[in-house]
């Protein structure tokens, strides 16, 4: 947990994909710092757990708005933003965190993977971010707010068997830069955090059996330069920092890799180490 800050007291924070993983850890952190929060995702069951965790962290029931739905659905996104501003009267922070690797089971590799997989991946990881940000901008302009996009280190050049997920995150990074450059003129700061391997439900949600996913993260604990995978709270702390104007006002349009040294060693900087 970070040192106490009063910045988020009564601020309004919307975190997409906050029914699980990184988004859940972030929204609980904001709620515990006094923010009014919107928790959202598709699973009502998981949303209820997030809400309980916010309350256990000190939030009051009336500080939390819970809205279930799919961020690739434009009507739902409109509801999400309108109901957040309708209930709380303002919006200070948008965290575009909802995302996934849509696993393709065709057995093909690289760009021979069917284009439907590209479309659904881009829809979730990029298009929905543009749409929700468009709706949030007028509200964030009034509060001189902040946006954090949750990208990935796979946005940096890597060769991966299923390329559309990294492609979508590279696109998201470019989007962060474009958003940051135009929106700072309205007083809105935009940055991204690019996690490496973080122990969440991510691989299971992408189609990996739960036990296999656990073994996968265990093996990464041994091979990562830092000697362990990150936790959702590791990333939540960075999101928290990047959206707290009193801590990070000068940071605009940056991608913060948070990966236990993975990229450093994959860029050939480590020869002989
Ligand atoms: P999780 O699977 O634990 O959480 C993903 C969250 O996104 C859930 O709350 C899920 O909610 C929500 N979500 C997924 N699809 C949709 C949708 N169509 N509509 C609404 N909500 C949706 O994964 P992480 O917490 O790990 O992932 C969070 C972000 O971090 C993603 O953008 C991911 O790409 C990124 N990331 C993760 C890494 C990792 O190693 N874990 C590494 C690098 C980046 P629900 O299931 O209820 O719909």
TrEMBL record:
It comes from the Eukaryota. This is Dehydrogenase.
């Amino acid at each position: 947990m970070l040192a106490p800050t009063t910045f988020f007291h009564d601020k309004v924070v919307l975190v997409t994909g906050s029914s699980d993983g990184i988004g859940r850890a972030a929204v609980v952190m904001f709620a515990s710092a006094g923010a009014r929060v919107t928790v959202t995702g598709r699973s009502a069951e998981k949303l209820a757990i997030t809400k309980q965790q916010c309350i256990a962290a000190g939030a009051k029931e009336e500080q939390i708005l819970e809205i279930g739905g799919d961020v690739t659905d434009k009507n739902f996104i409109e509801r999400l933003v309108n109901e957040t501003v309708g209930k709380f009267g303002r919006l200070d922070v948008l965290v575009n965190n909802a995302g996934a690797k849509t696993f393709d089971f065709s057995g093909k590799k690289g760009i021979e993977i069917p284009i439907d997989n590209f479309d659904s991946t881009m829809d979730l990881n990029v298009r929905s971010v543009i749409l929700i940000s468009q709706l949030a901008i007028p509200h964030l302009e009034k509060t001189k707010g902040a946006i954090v996009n949750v990208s990935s280190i796979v946005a940096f050049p890597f060769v991966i068997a299923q390329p559309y997920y990294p492609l979508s995150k590279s696109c998201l990074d470019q989007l962060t830069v474009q958003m940051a450059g135009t929106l700072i003129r309205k007083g809105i700061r935009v940055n991204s955090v690019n996690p490496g391997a973080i122990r969440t439900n991510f691989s299971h949600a992408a189609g990996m059996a739960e036990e296999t996913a656990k073994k996968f993260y265990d093996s990464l604990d041994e091979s990562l330069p830092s000697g362990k995978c990150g936790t959702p709270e590791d990333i939540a702390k960075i999101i928290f920092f990047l959206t707290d104007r009193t801590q990070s006002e000068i940071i605009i349009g940056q991608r913060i890799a948070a990966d236990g040294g993975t990229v450093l060693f994959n860029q050939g900087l480590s020869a002989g180490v």
